Structure formats: structure tokens, C-alpha cells
Amino acid sequence: MKEITLCDCGHMESKHSEFTRGFGTDPETGKTYCYDCCLARDITYLREHGNLSAYISSDGKNITTWSGEHIATITGHHIVNFGFCRNQWSFNAVMQDGTKLSGRGPGEGMFCRLKLNKGKTK
User: Fold this and answer.
1) Cβ–Cβ contacts within 10 Å for residue 116, how many?
2) Per-domain residue ranges for the chain?
3) DSSP letters spanning 1-68
4) CA-to-CA distance for 36 and 71, rounded, in angstroms?
5) Degrees (nearest 5) of the Cα angle 94, 98, 15?
6) Are the C-beta atoms of residues 36 and 27 closer than 8 Å to each other?
7) Which residues does the chain have with pLDDT short of 50?
8) Are 102 and 92 within 8 A, CB to CB?
9) Is 53 exposed, middle or buried (0-12, 13-18, 19+ CB in 10 A)?
10) Closest CA to 27 of 63, 53, 1
């Protein structure tokens, strides 16, 4: 068993499974961040840049980070069929503070791209 790590964010590594390490690493600086700080950094990035890579939860109800932290709740979706074995979800979601998002991805449990809705976002 590996030792518990103090991350560069000042927090201990997050609770994790045998498939994860309990922290994220900034690819540019190499600094480590607990999952809560990774989520905060993702939300900041989304607000500053207007887009974010994330995941549709396995039940199709939420948008999450790679480690499973909740970003937004899906409020509706429809499936676009692009032919044999090529479906894409197009969805709307809302963050806890009321910020509205839209996005696309292949479906439950899969990677997706989020965008802040233009205009009034709350």
C-alpha cells in the first residue's frame, strides 16, 4: 500500500479506488491537487474559457469530473444518430449555482464537451 500523500494544494490526497491515486496532476507544472481542488480548478477553467472536457455519469443524470465529482445535473437530452453505431447525446445541464450549460458526448459513462450557455447563464 502506498503512503498517503500531501498534495501541493495543501490537502491530503482524496479517497480513491485501486484504479486511481487520490490526486490530479497539472500537466504544465507537475503540481498535485486533491479531487476537491481539481474540481475547483475545472470550474474556474469553465468560467474563464467557456468550455470544459468532462464525463456523463454512468446513469446519464449528471456531468462529472474524471474522478466522479459532480459538476452539473443534466436537465434534458436527445440522441442524434449518425449511422451504424454512431450516436451522440446533445444535452442541457445546470450547475448547483444555476449556471446553464450545454454539451455533447457519446452517452452514459463517456467523455463529453461542455459549453457555458451564452447570454444569461443563471
Assistant:
1) 18
2) 24-116
3) -PPP-B-TTSSBPPP--TT--S-EE-TTT--EE-HHHHHHHHHHHHHHHSEEEEEE-TTSSEEE-TT-
4) 11
5) 65
6) no
7) 1, 121
8) yes
9) middle
10) 53
- How many CA within 13 A on the CB side of residue 22? 15
Q: With 0-12 CB in 10 A as exposed, 13-18 as middle and 19+ as buried, what is 33?
A: buried
pLDDT digits (tens, 9 = 90+) for 50-64: 999 999 999 999 999
What's the angle, vertex CA 121, arms to CA 80 and CA 40, rounded to 5? Answer: 90
Written as nine digits, the cell of 80 is 442524434
**Burial of 93 by CB count in 10 Å (0-12 exposed, 13-18 middle, 19+ buried)?**
buried
pLDDT at 1: 43
